[in-house]
Amino acid sequence: xxxxxxxxxxxxxxxxxxxxxxxxxxxxxxxxxxxxxxxxxxxxxxxxxxxxxxxxxxxxxxxxxxxxxxxxxxxxxxxxxxxxxxxxxxxxxxxxxxxxxxxxxxxxxxxxxxxxxxxxxxxxxxxxxxxxxxxxxxxxxxxxxxxxxxxxxxxxxxxxxxxxxxxxxxxxxxxxxxxxxxxxxxxxxxxxxxxxxxxxxxxxxxxxxxxxxxxxxxxxxxxxxxxxxxxxxxxxxxxxxxxxxxxxxxxxxxxx
Length: 256
Ligand code: MG
Ligand code: MG
What we know:
Elements: H1 12-35, H2 42-55, E1 74-78, E2 81-83, E3 98-107, E4 110-119, H3 125-143, H4 151-164, E5 168-169, E6 175-177, E7 184-188, E8 205-208, E9 211-213, E10 219-221, E11 228-230, E12 236-238, E13 241-246, E14 249-252
Antiparallel strand pairs: 1-3, 2-11, 3-4, 5-9, 6-7, 6-8, 8-13, 9-12, 10-11, 13-14
Helix pairs in contact: 1-2, 3-4
One magnesium ion binds next to β3 and β4.
């Protein structure tokens, strides 16, 4: 296959279905964001995600994923947890915390995947600045996603914004192609050199997901085989969108 190394190329009709999956993810985000406040448990946030999926006739691409099977429809990762936190009724969010919520949906066999980090109550200014910079790093990456750009342009955009804000970028975790499966080739790194890597074409759909730390970016895996935390205890933010590259420019499929 001539184009085997690049991400799959989707038709407009396929992207339209992915947009419907993305709309479900966007509503999960909206409902969960509204519920984030001191005293709420991450288990309660997971139930909100399940309610949205059921009401909209979508299924979860998180529940049962991999081995050990992920037991929930959202990942909820507070404070120094970077990604893949398992929501439970034992994890209570407190004033001054932050929490990263990652979730996805499948509609008619097509996938959406997105994440945000939110403050819980009143949060320290430098922590809010980290969340803001994580979002700006994702915005910069999205802006770079035009036909003819290269994969390295995405990582370069994320890394440039994050490091300019004094943050470090987590290594060893990346975004990904997305379509009929949540995780498809290629990996989409959050670091890299502009002008390097495979050339991107109209119809490519990628999940881009910066993971940044206010401090030391070294991470470790907890005994539950899912939760990824910073080794230092420094706090982290994780944001993600599913984005289609089109002739008219980047289209974020996981926005309302
Ligand atoms: Mg995700
Ligand atoms: Mg993802």
